[in-house]
Amino acid sequence: MSRFCILLSAILILNPLREHTLNDNGMNMKEHLHRTADTGEGCGNILAILSFILWGSLVFYWKVLDEVPALIIVSHRILWCFVFMLLYILLRGRFGRLTAVLKVRRHILILLLSGILVGANWFIYVLSVSRGQVLQASLGYYINPLMNVFLGLLFLKERLTPLQWISLTTAFIGVVIMTVGTGVFPWISLTLAVTFSLYGLIKKTVHIPSDLGLTLETTFLTPVALLLLYFLRRKYGPMLGNLPPLETVLLPASGIVTALPLFLFSEGAKRIPLSRIGFFQFISPSLMFLIGYLVYGEPLTTVKVVSFIFIWTALILFLLPRRRVSKKKKVLA
Fold it and tell me: What is the reported pTM?
């Protein structure tokens, strides 16, 4: 996983250089913009889907670090994500644009808010794990797509077809089944869903480059992470000093595996409707569910099976009319 993330980060860094070379070789700017508009939505689909596949697959990564206290892992994620993104900005020669964003007070307030939202999302997730409420945390990732669809309809005036309304209702039934099956009020789940959905809404409505936004968000969170590491190291210092070499490397590498999905998600969110992002997000918790059952042997209850079927049926119903529209466009072309 770490090798894949490093390779992908190299591609992201080098790709702008390739585009610059194409333009220098004489490509007409109008033609370039036209091609970009045509491929933007398809590229957004790929970026969004890839981000959720990475998020779902990270269970393998964190499983290796299961002996490290969760707050220490989160603090390292914030700190090294900041370091990785700052290096990325410097290599791209975009530090001037980074400082330019900070000159606009509105940008500072918005990025501070988005940083708080993603930081709160990470903190609630860690809190749920430390309290043994992982089921509520996983439920939050199923509720999250529904919240995205709701916010898209409420704030962005996005419209759904009748078949997509049916799919939304089907997904809602699946989430209700899972919620009732847990037997407790899912406040952790709702908090996780609301914080990350609002984070996605900000990314959709604010026109700040994703790399600059993520760098500044982690900049605002880094002082908190450093304070946590200082106090937690005093308590867990001896244990952290005896970590195996692999875990010692994976802690700072967590910055890369944290930054890449967020970066891909931010880029994808700019190109496609928020409601579609909402349904793509079913990929991540479903992948976690399959890994938990097939790889780690977690029990598969009837409630999980039924809700899983409802949610994936909803995803298929939501995407079906879009595939038909794409085929019609190809025929007309």
Answer: 0.72
